[in-house]
Amino acid sequence: MKNLIKLFFSLMALSIFMGGVDGAYCAQEQVVAVVNNEVITQKDLVDFMRFIRLEYAEKLEGEKLEQKVDSMKRDLLARLIEDRLISQQAKLEKFSVEPARVKARISQIRSHYASDADFNNDLAKQGLVLADLENKISEQMLMQGFVQQKVRSKVMIRPDEITAFYSAHKDELLKPEARRLTLIMLADGGNAKTLSNQLRLGGRIEDLATRFDFTLDSFTAVAGEQLRPQIEAAVFKLGLGEVSDPIKVDSQYYIFKLEEIIPAQPQTLAQAQDKIQSYLFEQKIQEELNKWLDELKTRAYIKVFEN
């Protein structure tokens, strides 16, 4: 059977490479790999990258987004082959995803845009339409749910593993540097700019409260955690006592003042155990997933066509 599949797809690929069709179309439909009874084309690779960009754009932007996308390009085909293997096995075992979960995920992505028009425009920039996004999300959820059933649900971390890791890496397990900030929120952009300037000139928040209508709050932030990218970029440039320019988020303007830099500190086992457990869990998941994928690969027909 494998030989028949191999012959069929080799002939199919040859007909695409040799056929007298439009050059651009031919390049798009060029077969780059075969996984069992499915082909992966150059267009599949391009669409996959566009989908990845759209997914990561929820959390990253600018240079960080480009770095993440570029880092994935190197292993794009290998990941797409593995995804096809997982998807094929899931369908073979009649695993499915509720359509309502797909719609909910699309609504979540759409919520990051100011309007439906902005959402659809961004899809168009990525060369996608809503149906493409629905198909990609459905496929991703199918694979994630199947991996959860086959791999993740079977992995456990024992308490002694956490303790042993803590003992071996105690000096490295530091509570990261944090920044204590005052947050001022205003609805008027002009007032926000004036207030920011007044604070930089030495004005006291208590005195300025009689002239400006704002909401005051304070919080502690760690790099790479809860802040939006544009806010994190502004906050972590501030020196002690410095005040940021107003930052508009939705209909509000935000001003930040850095009150204190809290240095990195050693963590107790109780403080570190959740992160240790997550790290060990993901490490085991990857090991078990690689073993499972290797088993799928040994039973599969996989052919990669070199350019």
The CATH topology of the largest domain is: Triger factor/SurA peptide-binding fold
Secondary-structure-derived class: alpha+beta
Largest sheet: 4 strands, antiparallel
Q: What percent of residues are in strands?
A: 15-25%
Number of DSSP strand runs: 9
List keywords for this structure.
alpha+beta, Triger factor/SurA peptide-binding fold, Chitinase A, domain 3, about 55% helix, globular, single chain, disordered N terminus, about 300 residues, 2 domains, four-stranded antiparallel beta sheet
How would you explain this protein's 3D organization?
This protein is an alpha+beta fold. It has 2 domains: 2-155 and 282-304, Triger factor/SurA peptide-binding fold (Orthogonal Bundle); 177-263, Chitinase A, domain 3 (Roll), CATH 3.10.50. 57% of the residues lie in helices and 15% in strands. The chain has helices at 2-18, 23-28, 42-56, 62-73, 76-92, 99-110, 116-125, 130-150, 159-169, 189-200, 205-208, 229-235, 269-299, and strands at residues 31-35, 38-41, 174-175, 178-186, 215-222, 247-249, 252-262, 265-266, 302-304. It has a 4-stranded antiparallel β-sheet. The longest helix is centred in the last third of the chain and has 31 residues, at 269-299. It is globular, with a radius of gyration of 26 Å. The two termini are 27 Å apart. Mean pLDDT is 84; it is low at 1-26.
